[in-house]
Amino acid sequence: MKIIGFVYNSRKTKDDSEWEMVLKGDSCLLNGRKPFFLPEGATEIGATECLILRVSRLGKGIASRFADRYYDATAPGVDFTDLAALREAQEAGRPWTQAIAFDYSLAIGEWDDVRSDDVQSAQESLVLSPEEAIAEASKTMTIRQGDLIYIQRKQTPRLVQKEEVIRMETNGEEKLYCKIK
């Protein structure tokens, strides 16, 4: 299983886009209402809301007009980032892996049908639409059933504190609960 992310980058890239594509390992997933433990030595952990897509079929080079056929469910998520390590990596021109792909850095909520009204309206503030994200990801790699694609919102990560609780709702129902420890 691959976890492909489209993260907000206010600094903009050389092609003038506001997003970067990143990869995370499966040890990054935090689900089942489990707490998020602040990583040892991290001084600034930021949280950014995101939408997570569950890929339902195999594909490569998918046109965005057909991309809605390649995912069958969505879930709310929170992407945790070590902001100090991210700044350091960006300034040095190094990969962001250490800042974004640490264990349990992607909290995932309960899955919803892709046709949910709240899910459709939540897509407006994303760095890319789900269809654009699938098309972009499939340009460089084959996506497979079970892969996850997460798309951040266009927002600066907010700092999280110990004992804080993050909750997200869809259709008036709590879909994500994560306590910071």
Fold blueprint:
Blueprint: E1 3-8, E2 19-24, E3 29-30, E4 45-55, E5 71-82, H1 83-92, H2 97-100, E6 106-108, E7 112-113, H3 117-122, H4 130-140, E8 148-152, E9 158-159, E10 165-170, E11 173-179
Parallel strand pairs: 1-8, 3-6
Antiparallel strand pairs: 1-2, 4-5, 4-8, 4-9, 5-6, 5-7, 10-11
Give your account of this protein's structure.
With 181 residues, the chain is α+β, with helices and mostly antiparallel strands. The protein has a single domain (3-32, 40-171), classed as Alpha-Beta Complex (Fumarylacetoacetate hydrolase, domain 2). Helices cover 17% and strands 34% of the residues. The protein contains four helices and eleven strands; from the N terminus they run βββββααββααββββ. The strands form two sheets. Strands 1, 2, 3, 4, 5, 6, 7, 8 and 9 form a nine-stranded mixed β-sheet that branches. Strands 10-11 form a two-stranded antiparallel sheet. 35% of the residues are buried.
SSE order, as H and E? EEEEEHHEEHHEEEE
CATH level-two architecture? Alpha-Beta Complex
Helix content: 10-25%
> What is the CA–CA distance across the termini?
28 Å
Please give the count of helices: 4
- Beta fraction: 25-35%
Average pLDDT, all residues:
91
Rg computed from alpha carbons, rounded to a whole number of angstroms: 16 Å
Largest sheet: 9 strands, mixed
Task: Tell me the name of the CATH class.
Answer: Alpha Beta
Q: Supply the helix-strand structural class.
A: alpha+beta
Provide a short characterization of the protein structure.
The chain is α+β, with helices and mostly antiparallel strands and 181 residues long. The protein contains 4 helices and 11 strands.
